[in-house]
Write the structure tokens for this entry.
Amino acid sequence: MSQNTELSLRILNQEISDWNIRDFINNLDIEQVCTISGNLRDTYKGQTVSYSRKIFINLINLCRDLCSYCTYKKEPSDSMASMLEKSQVLRLAEQGKKLNCTEALIVTGERPEQKYSQVREWLNKQGHSSTIQYIDEISSMILEQTGLLPHTNAGILTYKELSLLKKTNVSIGCMLESCSYRLMQNGMPHEFAPSKDPRARIKVLENAGRLRLPMTTGLLIGIGETMDEIMDSLFIIKEMNRKYGHIQEIIIQNFVPKFNTPMKNMVAPPWHYFLRAVCAARIILPEMNIQVPPNLNPSNFSKYLSAGINDWGGISPLTIDHVNPESPWPNIVTLNDITQREGYSLCARLPIYPEYLLHKREFIEPNMWRYISPLIEDNGFVRGGAW
């Protein structure tokens, strides 16, 4: 038996301590680490690689925070500032429905009404005092009028806000990004972004677990963290999921320098460093759905399949990635061809993963099933074919 096979079996049988897992992730050569993580993916996830066919609703892109790498945040005077009316959202959702999308990804900046009077006044005209209340109304409208399933990324949410959105969203997203408090110190990426405090992010994950609300989270790699801090973050997520079982997906996202940000001259994470982080996610959480966004790795995203990922994330045939507008989605036909070339089958999923639809039905609000059931096959994937 090879060393890689032996290590894979010992991880599967939970015979290796966290300390030893850290040691071999750090010290084995990258080919060995990839072999182990690939073996674990094949054991837990088989030969299927999924993606979600979505529309990206750029609801409000003003934000109270200032992250040193972000171009999503806009100012009210910016021509690209977005505050979408209900009619605009509905038009997008209807167009997405015609293109066989099943997910409505709703994204906003962090509590923009706390910083901008323009947002407060605009929300009041919509009949709301907060962005979250408006998202709830938007989500309900999308469900009832198009049948697309909302998934919201709106930063830090309270227990009460998560409880509200659970009634209209099949899942919620909140990136941990990193558990490193160093990244909030002077001159670091999160110095002016209080919502990126790891304690606040972990609290969101904790509250979602208490509510049995399926949660997507993940890490941003290459913004000044160390490999040990990456593993610290993954072990925090692992413990949270062990306690509540609600973490449905981990996104491992590589930092991409953007020309008009304070970090424009910072170098992107080295290939082997990012690849090791992807492998670490699979090895530390072998049963998890692990995603790498293909649009941020246009020249080599197929190589992450060998590192153990089983998901490409959301891909839109209609809307751009408003967080990374310089990075277009791959064509879905091309994505299918590349996935098959690597020996895997591409399959469309909903914004809630099949295992929740099949085995964790208690995580889904009863009223949501009338929207979910018409969309899925018996295996929990999208009805009507892979892509």
About this structure: The chain is about 40% helix and 15% strand.
